[in-house]
Amino acid sequence: MKPIVYVDAAATTPLSEFAFNRALPFLREDFGNASSRHSHGVTARQTLEESRRTIGETLGARSEEIVFTSGASEANAWILNAIAAPIVAAPAINVKDVNVVSTAFEHSSIWETLRSLERRGVAVTYLRPNRDGVISTADVAAALRPNTRLVSIMTANNELGTLQPIAEIGRLLRERGVVFHTDATQAVGHIPLNVNELNIDFLTASAHKFNGPKGFGFLYRRHDVDLPAFILGGSQERGLRSGTENIFGAVATAAALTENVAALPETTARLCNLENALLRRLREVLSSSDFSVVGESAARLPGFLNLVFNGADGDTMTRLLDLRGVCASTGSACSSGDVKPSRTLLATGRSELEARSSVRVSFGRSAVPDDAVAVADARK
Ligand code: PMP
After folding, report:
1. Which of 99, 193, 252, 254 has an alpha carbon within 20 to 30 A of 49's alpha carbon?
2. Residues that are catalytic
């Protein structure tokens, strides 16, 4: 049987061996509850705080600025609801006087939450990316209003891999005194990020995108920005998110992230080579008018390609690729199975037909040169 070629790392990645081995003892031998005062509890607490510090260091954050969550969807919903509609925390604020600036191609966890805020009366401004899948800082500046409470713009788009000018946007928003959130789920562990240099107030991340475990993630909250509690109860996570802490998740996430960050220069070079090899091979087997790369000249995540094939159906193509042993996806994995045209591609100004004709190829860190050839040849 032919080996499976997995080129859907943007959907998820396997737990790294290093992270698994590091975290395994915390499922059985070291099973303590971090709130217990006995030795088992103390070990759990120390391990949890060590993981928090390690994760913080990879982003230039203080340990107390990292809050553990179940993943990015939770953290995104928390921030948007808490900052944009702080009805409970600040009853003096009328929700009708709140504006949020975001984009038309955010992940559904942001998009659907913004839609729900709109139903509650919040005014949301959705900026459109250009044809290359990039938001303009000038558009962000022009969209700001006196009542803009939050700007939420992703670091890297999950369908296109395109990087947004978050350094420029961060500088602008710091000058204007507007809170800046970035959903960095696709970027953390894949490109260097420093929350201070980038002037980020809130950043969200998910461990399973960088070879950590599923159902675990974190939120960076700048120490001087207020955030109302999300879950009340035992006061874990500094009273912000109650519930017995997931020590396995924290240890595995810290290990996976440090491992990925340490290997970044090597992984980046290797994944860029794979991406180029795939494009070269595709150009050998197809004519240049048969397909295009969205954002080809834009800065993108390494090893990440969104290919639009003229006149083809992306959904059918990914099924065909699967039959030939290649796992890729169309649109975002979270919405695949749903055959609507991609909201992200429509936002870049492409037609409905084009927005149904794309395949996303995202190489994981263990991808090898043969994978690039296998993907191109499977399309023949
Ligand atoms: N934001 C982005 C940009 C994503 O790619 C994803 C995962 N597809 C999420 C948020 C949601 O992450 P999680 O799976 O941790 O809820």
Report:
1. 193
2. 334
